[in-house]
Amino acid sequence: MNIKPQIHVVWLKRDLRLHDNEAIFNALVTGKKVLFLYSFEPLLINDSHYSERHWNFIKESLVDLNNELKPFDSKVLIVQSDIIAVFNQLLTKYQINKIFSHQETGLLVTYNRDKNFKRFCKNNLIDWIENINNGVQRGLKNREQWTALCNAFFEIDALPFQPKPNQLLSISDIEMLEANFKIPNLNTPQTTAFQKGGRSMGLKYLNSFFETRYPNYMLHISKPELARKSCSRISPYIAWGNLSIREVYQQAYHLKKTAKHKKAIEAFMSRLRWQAHFIQKFEMEHTMEEASINKGFHKLKKSISQEYLEAWKTGQTGYPLIDACMRCLNETGYLNFRMRALVVSFLTHNLWQPWQEATTHLSQMFLDFEPGIHFPQLQMQAGETGINMLRIYNPVKNSLEHDPSATFIKKWVPELKLLDTPLAHQPYLMTPLEEQLFNFKLGEDYPYPIVALESSRKKAGDILWNLRKNKKVKAESQRILKKHIVKNRF
């Protein structure tokens, strides 16, 4: 009778790192042989929230992981398959008693997959151990203990990667396993448009931020062009788990002790905490993926305009800063926070479109797509939480304030690059003489504005402010505050 060798498996998801990875650390502590697994699951590949830029980032991250594992004569088993099918095949070769992974705060599709996987593990007498990722706590009913739990998480020393000799499945063992699976091609396009995935690249961004770029963090955080350098730019590496938020926070904490620009570091650390706060909110309010957290806003009905949506997605609205932002996002996968808020505000308020119509396009475009940030922020900027200040951003005011020389606008809307700066901000104010002077025809070279700012802002503001007086909206606002109020904040 052949006795199958026993192994433990670490199922990697959005935690593509070896260091400060609780699932990996706990698997190694057992002393058993360990296999690292990543599966490109069809249910996610086909999900409308993801796009090729995400899968390329993940592939680059896995290649980087395998380079890190070479000195240990190991690598990640990378397959393309439903996760239960993967483990059914592994069980023909190995005895698997424990599977380690992180608790995923993801889309409804991953939640349902995990429920099925839990049943699979139970039926096969496998202990599936889910570990905390980035401080998010599962099963909380309110935030009474959350700050203490979050503080405790951030204060624990980052977990080292220290496998025992020969503890990891060898490259030759894994290559034998690969013969039983569909193996994805890990080659990715050679492009500089997107940030490249992988921990080594994430560390380069992090180190350059702390060494030279952070002093201008608060000065430029709202500037669409300058923020591209003075912000950390590590959000994709946190979203896909190349870096843990704890190790980033701890590095910032130690830097603050000697830094000349302490306020910049403190502001950065505060945003790391808020990242955990919003993901925790999403964990506790899973319906946010499809409906407003405040049920009083479910009665708000907006007619969908495909014409408006297409103009917004492609950067053809007639408002230069909006168009520059959308084209930049489509091309590079990145916008700073204020510009993200601006484009959502314009869509949901000025164009009066449901925030749900923005979800998949923006998730596909954001290289740092994180469900726990994505949906709470969409609803907050759309003004449908009932607890946040209603903000309707003026794209012209913002362009004059944050891109005064129209550098960002002219870069991403090249139709306007030869215009004088004031006209680049508001080309619709051109006179016929100016059109002749610049050889520019409004409506042909660049579109007229698709809506009037002031009247559309007033319509949205009136409707939303009146809704906030509704009894159900008020009751829901109190429920949300009671559930999510953070006492003794950080």
TrEMBL record:
Pfam families: DNA_photolyase, FAD_binding_7. InterPro entries: Crypto/Photolyase_FAD-like_sf, Crypto/Photolyase_N_sf, Cryptochr/Photolyase_FAD-bd, Cryptochrome/DNA_photolyase_1, DNA_photolyase_1_CS_C, DNA_photolyase_N, Rossmann-like_a/b/a_fold. Its cofactor is (6R)-5,10-methylene-5,6,7,8-tetrahydrofolate; FAD. GO terms for molecular function: deoxyribodipyrimidine photo-lyase activity; DNA binding; FAD binding. Binds 1 FAD per subunit. One of its GO terms (biological process) is nucleobase-containing compound metabolic process. Keywords: Chromophore, FAD, Flavoprotein, Lyase. FAD binds at Y217, F268. PROSITE patterns: DNA_PHOTOLYASES_1_1 (PS00394), PHR_CRY_ALPHA_BETA (PS51645). Residues 6-136 form the Photolyase/cryptochrome alpha/beta domain. The keyword Transmembrane helix does not apply. Belongs to the DNA photolyase family. PANTHER family: CRYPTOCHROME, CRYPTOCHROME CIRCADIAN CLOCK 5 ISOFORM X1. This is Deoxyribodipyrimidine photo-lyase family protein (Cryptochrome). It comes from Algibacter luteus.
